[in-house]
């Protein structure tokens, strides 16, 4: 491969396994239409729990996309990740055996690991005894499992990593991959997928005061409104292929977007008022790195926690960091139609941002029809707009805040 | 005296169950001297098979059993242990 490098990290492949769509085009169609797929949780063993509504990936049959050995040896969150990674590599024209395996790395973010697999083995431990626990338990429920299994399955031997920095880690891993590319790795497979809807995982979440326990799918997750009552969890995720922009152009593949800037801060678990300053600083840091003026931001994909104090902090942070432009720029939160898939939520938002720029449409915020904050929140239907630069925001329940600036690729495919 | 031996059939089924590896019993028998990794079975997979056999036959297998490199070596060790222990 030539040594010519741009120093810019380009997005050249996208793979999505989301509650509202398998594959990128189906996901975009649902997001653009403002389709909501939130529903009562239908998974076995979950119906007695006070968490009732979530975004499930119902059309995913892992056996269709994943080989038997991975079905036995890994958890659902890794099944999602492996399937999405393969879709992303195909999209980037890099499917099949890698020509230069040591030049392709993997980094994922993970929030909860393999809860379903872990529960099954722990039930064997306490039901039958330690000799009945399968050895793959040791790797399947580990946060790092998906990075390892993607690299094994696709034969990728470049630098690998896992970002465990709370929900905002979904943006942090994109920054990590972009830095790896700038340091000289040819290609990074990056993103997150989560599967937090098994009984054990759900019980772990019940302690979060931010969790919505409303049992009406249309009312359970309505951020930025006076009816905001918490967030709804989701499963699924997205993986992207990131590579040097000059290399992508040499290969002749479309540059779908450029990861232009990122910054992260930490303000403490559930300290939502403090997240205002943390998020504003993250935005300023991301704009600085991108060399981007506040007025250049054409759309904001909000974190949209759905907790009144957190929503207020986010609206104020946008105003603090973007000034008067903060009240004029279109803001959206498509995740209200699918729920928050923890670390995968901001990755899915980044995908939505790339697609929004490609299609020139700001997707709406499902189930939200008005806002009690000083934001131009896009509701009901997609809004046509010339979009060159998007800002994606994320916060985690444990106190992480992050912002990512994404620029449109010049040779937009559509 | 134990009358049943662990066969290539049973080993093949265990590879499927414990590690998701599909290998035809006849092929396993023919390639019995090939290392387990040629069939895609890693060390955790073999460890799982050892655990399953211990539960199934109600007796411990020697520590060396999970270090066996080939199906032939593994079945010889397992069957000699099960026969001696019966």
TrEMBL record, chain A:
Pfam family, one: Ketoacyl-synt_C
UniProt keyword Cell wall biogenesis/degradation present: no
The keyword Mitochondrion is assigned to this record: no
UniProt GO MF annotations: 3-oxoacyl-[acyl-carrier-protein] synthase activity
InterPro entries reported in the protein's UniProt record: Beta-ketoacyl_synthase, Ketoacyl_synth_C, Ketoacyl_synth_N, PKS_Beta-ketoAc_synthase_dom, Thiolase-like
PANTHER family xref list: POLYKETIDE BETA-KETOACYL SYNTHASE 2-RELATED, POLYKETIDE SYNTHASE-RELATED
UniProt-recorded name of the protein: Polyketide beta-ketoacyl synthase
Source organism of this protein record: Streptomyces toyocaensis
From TrEMBL, chain B:
Listed PROSITE patterns: CARRIER, PHOSPHOPANTETHEINE
UniProt xrefs under InterPro entries: ACP-like_sf (IPR036736), PP-bd_ACP (IPR009081), Ppantetheine_attach_site (IPR006162)
Domain Carrier: 5-86
Keyword Oxidoreductase set for record: no
Keyword terms, alphabetized: Phosphopantetheine, Phosphoprotein
Source taxon at top rank: Bacteria
This protein's name: Curamycin polyketide synthase acyl carrier protein
Lineage of origin: Bacteria, Bacillati, Actinomycetota, Actinomycetes, Kitasatosporales
């Amino acid at each position: 491969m030539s040594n010519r490098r741009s120093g810019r990290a380009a997005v050249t492949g996208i793979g999505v396994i989301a509650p509202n769509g398998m594959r990128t085009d189906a996901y975009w169609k649902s997001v653009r239409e403002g389709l909501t797929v939130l529903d009562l949780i239908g998974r076995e063993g979950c119906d007695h729990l006070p968490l009732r509504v979530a975004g499930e990936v119902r059309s995913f049959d892992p056996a269709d996309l994943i080989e038997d050995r991975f079905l036995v040896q890994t958890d659902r969150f890794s099944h999602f990740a492996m399937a999405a990674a393969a879709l992303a590599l195909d999209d980037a024209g890099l499917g099949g055996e890698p020509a230069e395996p040591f030049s392709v790395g993997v980094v994922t973010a993970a929030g909860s690991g393999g809860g379903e697999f872990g529960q099954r083995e722990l039930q064997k431990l306490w039901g039958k005894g330690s000799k009945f626990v399968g050895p793959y338990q040791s790797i399947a429920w580990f946060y790092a499992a998906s990075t390892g299994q993607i690299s094994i399955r696709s034969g990728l031997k470049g630098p690998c990593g896992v970002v465990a920095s709370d929900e905002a880690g979904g943006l942090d891993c994109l920054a990590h991959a972009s830095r790896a590319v700038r340091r000289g790795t040819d290609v990074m497979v990056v993103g997150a997928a989560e599967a937090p809807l098994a009984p054990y995982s759900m019980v772990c979440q019940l302690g979060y005061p931010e969790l919505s326990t409303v049992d009406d799918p249309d009312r359970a997750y309505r951020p930025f409104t006076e009816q905001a009552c918490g967030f709804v969890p989701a499963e699924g995720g997205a993986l992207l292929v990131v590579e040097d922009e000059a290399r992508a152009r040499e290969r002749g593949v479309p540059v779908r977007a450029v990861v232009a800037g990122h910054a992260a801060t930490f303000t403490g678990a559930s300290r939502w008022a403090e997240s205002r300053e943390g998020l504003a600083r993250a935005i300023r840091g991301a704009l600085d790195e991108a060399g981007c003026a506040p007025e250049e931001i054409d759309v904001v994909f909000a974190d949209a926690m759905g907790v009144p104090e957190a929503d207020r902090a986010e609206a104020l942070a946008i105003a603090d960091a973007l000034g008067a432009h903060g009240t004029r720029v279109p803001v959206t939160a498509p995740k209200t139609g699918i729920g928050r898939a923890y670390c995968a939520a901001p990755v899915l938002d980044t995908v939505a941002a790339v697609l929004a720029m490609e299609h020139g449409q700001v997707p709406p915020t499902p189930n939200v029809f008005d806002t009690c904050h000083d934001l131009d929140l896009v509701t009901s239907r997609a809004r046509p707009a010339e979009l060159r630069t998007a800002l994606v925001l994320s916060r985690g329940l444990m106190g992480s805040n992050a912002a990512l600036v994404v620029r449109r690729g010049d040779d937009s495919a559509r | 005296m134990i009358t049943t031996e662990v066969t290539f059939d049973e080993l093949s089924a265990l590879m499927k169950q414990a590690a998701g590896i599909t290998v035809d019993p006849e092929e396993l028998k023919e390639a019995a001297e090939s290392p387990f990794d040629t069939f895609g079975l890693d060390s955790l997979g073999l460890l799982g098979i050892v655990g399953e056999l211990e539960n199934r036959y109600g007796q411990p297998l020697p520590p060396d059993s999970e270090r066996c490199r080939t199906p032939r070596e593994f079945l010889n060790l397992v069957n000699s242990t099960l026969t001696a222990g019966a």
